[in-house]
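Sample log: GPI-anchor transamidase.
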Amino acid sequence: MRLLTTLLYLICSSVAVLQTGLQLKIDEFFEAPGHTNNWAVLVCTSRFWFNYRHVSNVLSLYHSIKRLGIPDSNIIVMLAEDVPCNPRNPKPGTCFNAPGGLNLYDWNIEVDYRGNEVTVENFIRVLTGRHVESEPRSRRMLSDHQSNVLVYLTGHGGDSFLKFQDAQELTNFDLGQTVQAMFEDNRYHEMFVIADTCRSESMYEYITAPRVLSTSSSLTHEESYSYDLDYDVGVFVIDRYTHFTLDFMNSQVQGLNSSASMQQYLDSCPKSQCLSTVGVKQDNYDKDPTRVRVTDFFGSARILSFFNEEIDLESDW
């Protein structure tokens, strides 16, 4: 009996050592993260009931990054259409991304800008931090030079522009200048921009600031396509790009210790599924996406720095 116990102990110890060694090799493979906190700005620019899927796109991504630890205090959500309260909604107070799926608009969701508040001006103010003095803290992105920032845009767009509520346009030049201003003001460490619209590759043409990785659901000459039609609701409830990237997140990125790479994320919606070609711009991003963890942008950094200096709490510090 004692011999059996000893053998089991040795086997368990060997497995633990092997697992530790494997984890060390995985950690050594990936680039060391240089950030200490994460922020996300998720924007639906479309209004009207028939654009239900654009609201669902944002809420789907919102739940993914919250599951991976990014708190509401570090997420700015902008929804131009209030789908759950739309009088045409046969299931009031709900929003789904699949027929018979889970309600995305649950009790703990926080929307920071809604309806007429979703404008080009407010979007740029959020990214640059140039708010009026009365803007509450909860509606500001308080990022710094150690922040990894995720920006997700969904709605209707064309070559070089994204429509905001069929009334305004954010041009690719506007977006490029905004990101440049963020860089000059030390508003990010690294940034990941996702444009999920028709002809969305054109939206990052003028993003030249360093350490920015960009992707799109379609090339400049292509449309983007919707996915699931919910016959009870009467409209499409999600776009193809969001659906397949969400599948990847749910299956391959189940925790902060996931070894899924950004390259795998970029490859998670091939043309055979998206029906459009995913675009990528990485010429001003100096890391290899195969060596960057998905959780560097979609998860919450828990990187602590320790120091031994004595702190005088009664000083001006």
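Observation: DSSP finds eight helices and twelve strands in the chain.
Observation: The chain has one domain: 36-298.
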